[in-house]
Amino acid sequence: MKLDGKVPGGPLEEKWTQYRSSMPLVAPNNKRRLEVIVVGTGLAGASAAATLGELGYNVKAFTFHDSPRRAHSIAAQGGINAAKNYQNDGDSVYRLFYDTIKGGDYRSREANVHRLAEVSRNIIDQAVAQGVPFARDYGGLLANRSFGGVQVSRTFYARGQTGQQLLLGAYQSLSRQISLGTVKMYNRHEMLDIVRIDGKARGIIARNLITGELERHAAHAVVLASGGYGNVFYLSTNAMMCNVSAAWRAVRRGALMANPCFTQIHPTCIPVSGDYQSKLTLMSESLRNDGRVWVPKKQEDAKAIREGKKTGLDIPEADRDYYLERRYPAFGNLVPRDVASRAAKTACDEGLGVAPTGLAVYLDFSDAIMRYGKSKAHSSGNDHPDEKLVKELGTAVISEKYGNLFEMYEKITGENPYIYPMKIYPAVHYTMGGLWVDYNLETNIPGLFALGECNFSDHGANRLGASALMQGLADGYFVIPYTIGTFLSKEIRTPKFDPNGEAFKATEKAVKDRIDNLLSVQGNQSVESFHRRLGSIMWDYCGMSRNAEGLRKAVQMVRELKAEFYNDVFVPGGNNEYNPELEKALRVADFMELGETMILDALNRDESCGGHFREEYQTEDGEALRDDENFTYVAAWEYPGNGQEPILHKEELVFENVELKTRSYK
């Protein structure tokens, strides 16, 4: 299979403008003839459905939540990037493009990333017009803060609730189209399969999660915006319902899964505290603006902290190792997520961890509190404030910037982070891999498009913080409304598809047979127990670090677990009713197949890059060692099923505008 990225010609900075001005269009009167299905109502899905409806297409939008507002985009905390250079600190479209390419360890497609940087500027204007309450400075202008992997301040934010506020803006736009009738909303419906007719995506099979009824929905094109697959690891920062099923069902129908082993480990998560946990809680990367990461220099101090005999307050400054500042002086605590995560793991592996499990480092705000307090006192005319006043004033500033995050931390851990340094440890967060798409965001299945975290296109081997919201809204508001026309312009004379046709009936039967098969096993083990075991395998052997021996072992373990699942899983209840255990079983079954493919992808990639760290391929000082000669490509996997090995297809990456070189944040 030859993969064509369909990247337009011309200079990089002119590609999108020229292409957008010359691509095929669908006239307004013809848009009314066409139907589009959008699966998912997070930032990418809601913005796409709203914009396509505004343009005049007939849109059907699907979410398995009771409301589009429940989409996981709501959980994003720290901010959204945009190259507006409001801080006058040297930012530009090119710098955002370069930072993203470099942050992804040179495993992204140049043209897609540059387009993302270009349209990022429009997103902020769109969101402000919707009333998104971005933070503002003293003069009323929009404020910015820094995030990891960059040396400018380009991140717009609304305290620690940026995703929620942006989603409410997109939801407003979506609700308007629903009220006008251009978008028909299907809440509590889960897509279980793609329907293909003559090779093209022409609809979906969805399950009404309240009644259990299977439904057929037809359209001229299908847009997937269903998020990432981090929950293959069981414990992650994702909501428990996040899954891969929409994307993976497309893979089972012939779509390619690209770079599935590229998983982002986020460095600032509340550490695991016990086996009872079903998910982890993220603390925003924005905290690294003011928090300093450290561990004790002495193992005996770390041991005393783990045993509860000391706290972080008992360790004098001279006995603290601010290891990110020491190892990466140019970026300090704001190195990219993959770099910060591996550094934390290294510190804990050396016996310097500060949680009872040994798996935690400190994120300390004491310096920031004192710095802000002195500044606040000085601005009030008090040049010689006492320490108590400085702490009070500084705490108020930190509370204003991060208060909801600090409250969340205290509720979960029982420790006051204004007094004691936070304990954090890396955890699975975002997935850079996803469905392979071309420049139009179209998969290798004609008429099937993928947006946001659901596709692979923009982040390479490691996503920079605050870029997920940027990509989701860029794809939904400013890319897909144009590029879907390249397909639909050829479909204006195609009549509406009959959901009672043979292709729909056959696909529905395949879904029903799959459900009946799971219900009929009536084994002895819960779905949850299988998911937990799968997650343990994935984290232990395909997590923060990997090696060939462990990956080969993991492939066999996942295959054996999958066979055991189909022989001994117990799914209570039936199909024609509300049955969350059945929903979970279908999703875990897909995670099993995805997990196998992820491991094979990691085994195939004999290099370290970004979030993919192979222990055999590292520099003398423990940094990732890429192999640009042999692995500068997108690994797009075909999954034939029926016991056959996944098949690798390659899209070679061509870099004409940046120099491939070893990343350095020192």
From TrEMBL:
Broad class of the protein's primary localization: membrane
Keyword Transcription among UniProt keywords: no
Transmembrane segments annotated in the record for this chain: none
InterPro entries reported for this sequence: FAD-dep_OxRdtase_2_FAD-bd, FAD/NAD-bd_sf, Fum_R/Succ_DH_flav-like_C_sf, Fum_Rdtase/Succ_DH_flav-like_C, SdhA/FrdA/AprA, Succ_DH/Fum_Rdt_flav_su, Succ_DH/fumarate_Rdtase_cat_sf
Highest taxon of the lineage: Bacteria
Domain (FAD-dependent oxidoreductase 2 FAD-binding) ranges: 36-469
Molecular-function annotations in GO: electron transfer activity; flavin adenine dinucleotide binding; succinate dehydrogenase (quinone) activity
Entries under Gene3D superfamilies matching the protein: FAD/NAD(P)-binding domain, Fumarate reductase/succinate dehydrogenase flavoprotein-like, C-terminal domain, Succinate dehydrogenase/fumarate reductase flavoprotein, catalytic domain
Catalysed reactions, semicolon-separated: a quinone + succinate = fumarate + a quinol
Localisation: Cell membrane
Keywords associated with the record: Cell membrane, Electron transport, FAD, Flavoprotein, Membrane, Oxidoreductase, Transport
Active site: 337
EC category name: oxidoreductase
Domain called Fumarate reductase/succinate dehydrogenase flavoprotein-like C-terminal: residue spans: 531-665
Its membrane topology: Peripheral membrane protein
One family name in Pfam for this protein: FAD_binding_2
UniProt record, GO biological process: anaerobic respiration
EC code(s) of this entry: 1.3.5.1
Named cofactor requirement(s): FAD
Gene Ontology CC, one term: plasma membrane
Similarity-based family: Belongs to the FAD-dependent oxidoreductase 2 family. FRD/SDH subfamily.
NCBIfam families: PRK07573.1, sdhA_Bsu
PANTHER family associated with the record: SUCCINATE DEHYDROGENASE 2 FLAVOPROTEIN SUBUNIT, SUCCINATE DEHYDROGENASE FLAVOPROTEIN SUBUNIT
Descriptive protein name: succinate dehydrogenase
Source organism: Flavilitoribacter nigricans (strain ATCC 23147 / DSM 23189 / NBRC 102662 / NCIMB 1420 / SS-2)
